[in-house]
Amino acid sequence: TGTYGTVQKPDEFDALIAYSPLYHVVPANYPAVMILTSHRNQEVVPAHAYKFAAVLQSNQRAQLPVLLRIAQGGAAALLP
């Protein structure tokens, strides 16, 4: 079992779905959003950020942006 659980165990799967922001996006008027991650993020692979940004963009009903920034360095590269 990983840090956050595994989808192979039903009770852990339910917990993962419950706190996953990806599975709670619905068509709505969201505020402007900027998603930040790093190319070398060791906690969450950048592909997850791409997927979340795409789902949020497709469900955004307000005329406000959903932006995604992938830095090439580690976490420090996200800082100005």
Count, helices: 2
Q: What is the strand content? A: 15-25%
Written as H for each helix and E for each strand, in order along the chain, the element string is HEHE
Mean pLDDT: 87
Total strands: the figure is 2
SS-based structural class? alpha+beta
Query: What is the straight-line distance between the termini?
Result: 36 Å
Query: What Rg is obtained from the alpha carbons, in whole angstroms?
Result: 15 Å
Tell me, briefly, the overall form: flat
Low-confidence stretches: none
Describe the structure.
By secondary structure, the chain is an alpha+beta fold. 30% of the residues lie in helices and 15% in strands. It is built from two helices and two strands. It is flat, with a radius of gyration of 15 Å.
Write a concise synopsis of the structure shown.
By secondary structure, the chain is α+β, with helices and mostly antiparallel strands. The protein has helices spanning 10-19, 46-59, and strands at 33-38, 66-71.
Features:
alpha+beta, 2 helices
Topology:
Layout: H1 10-19, E1 33-38, H2 46-59, E2 66-71
Parallel strand pairs: 1-2
